[in-house]
Design brief:
single chain; Udp-n-acetylmuramoylalanyl-d-glutamate--2,6- Diaminopimelate Ligase, Chain: A, domain 1; UDP N-Acetylglucosamine Acyltransferase, domain 1; 2 domains; ten-stranded parallel sheet; eleven-stranded mixed sheet; 39 strands; alpha/beta
Length: 345
């Protein structure tokens, strides 16, 4: 299928600063190192065109500096302020993966849907999926193969629940939420009481998990339901694969949590916080808005200001680096001291 560059510019007026030769058409979107004559490509670095194009693409989306360096008048050039953002929004429109499982009917014959469930317009249910009692699913949402939606769950519109996902009873999912394969939403939290014999007794968790609009959960994550109340993942949060979010945690808007990270029970993570890979937040602590936890950072006390934090326990990045430098100096001094003792002997 062919698309018009002119129509693209008209559709994304908030992105496009300038354009030329918009009469060109493209039929695919490709990477800057492997494209054809019908391709649209995104160019963000001058090095990507330093040797010139071997084969000319139909459309180039780039910034102003690089656009001025492209002198071939046969190429459509679309100038944007943020190439990466343009790539995200344009690819969603023209090169998105089709989640609708069009190879079978809207509700597969092998799916089990409770008679009380309410399915909106355009909902699709894949093979062997289970939709429980009183579940509500909004328009154009997709439940893919072998997923289980337990009773009384609410799912909004335009959501994609991928294969092998379990959404526990009573949980609430907003609009345009994407949940990758193997995710568990609303499992019971890790809560136990110890008796005088130091034996553990399970505390039932009767709260829920709420995922607000535009949340994305990566593959094989686990988000525990609240002991009471809710575990809350706010609007726009993006969680990478293999992360653990414990009971009664709040992750505020537009936070980013990278793979193999964990947040322990009843902690509160602020707006736009970035938790890098293999970082951890202890229980009952708060992380301030706009904080960045660098990889393997360990938060054991409240973080009260934005900026970069590192180490265990977490310290402001400059202090962390200074401590590393002091540690190296101490190590060198210790070696010199050992040499001095040997020479005295």
């Amino acid at each position: 299928m062919k698309y018009s560059a002119k129509q693209l510019c008209e559709q994304f007026t908030e992105l496009v600063i300038d354009s030329r030769n918009t009469d060109r058409e493209f039929s695919r979107i490709d990477g800057a190192n492997d494209f054809g004559e019908q391709s649209l490509v995104f160019i963000s670095e001058a090095s990507q065109i330093q040797d010139g194009f071997g084969v000319l693409p139909a459309v180039v989306v780039t910034n102003k500096a690089i656009a001025d360096a492209i002198d071939d008048e046969s190429v459509c050039v679309i100038v944007v302020a943020n190439v990466r953002l343009a790539q995200a929004l344009i690819k969603q429109q023209f090169a998105e993966y089709n989640h609708l499982d069009p190879e079978w009917d809207s509700v597969h014959d092998s799916a089990v849907v409770h008679p009380s469930a309410k399915l909106g317009h355009g909902v699709r249910i894949g093979p062997n999926a289970v939709v429980g009692k009183n579940v509500e699913i909004g328009d154009n949402s997709v439940i893919r193969a072998n997923s289980v939606i337990e009773h009384d769950v609410q799912i909004g519109s335009d959501c994609v629940i991928n294969s092998l996902v379990n959404v526990g009873y009573g949980c609430v999912i907003g609009n345009r939420v994407i949940i990758r394969p193997g995710v568990i939403i609303g499992s019971e939290g890790f809560g136990f009481a110890q008796d005088e014999l130091r034996q553990y007794h399970r505390i039932p968790h009767t709260g829920i998990v709420e995922l607000q609009d535009d949340v994305q959960i990566g593959s094989n994550c686990n988000i525990d339901r609240g002991t009471y109340g809710k575990t809350l993942i706010c609007r726009g949060v993006k969680i990478d694969s293999l992360c653990q979010i414990a009971h009664n945690v709040t992750i505020d808007q537009d936070a980013l949590i990278v793979s193999q990270s964990g947040v322990a029970g009843s902690s509160k993570v602020g707006k736009r916080v970035v938790i890098s890979g293999q970082a951890a937040v202890s229980d009952h602590v708060k992380v301030a808005d706009d904080a960045v936890l660098l990889h393997r950072c360990g938060v054991t006390q409240d973080i009260e200001s934005s900026g970069m934090w590192a180490g265990l326990p977490a310290k402001p990045f400059k202090e962390y680096v200074r401590n590393l430098s002091l540690s190296k100096r101490l190590d060198r001094l210790n070696k010199k001291f050992d040499e001095l003792k040997k020479s005295l002997k």
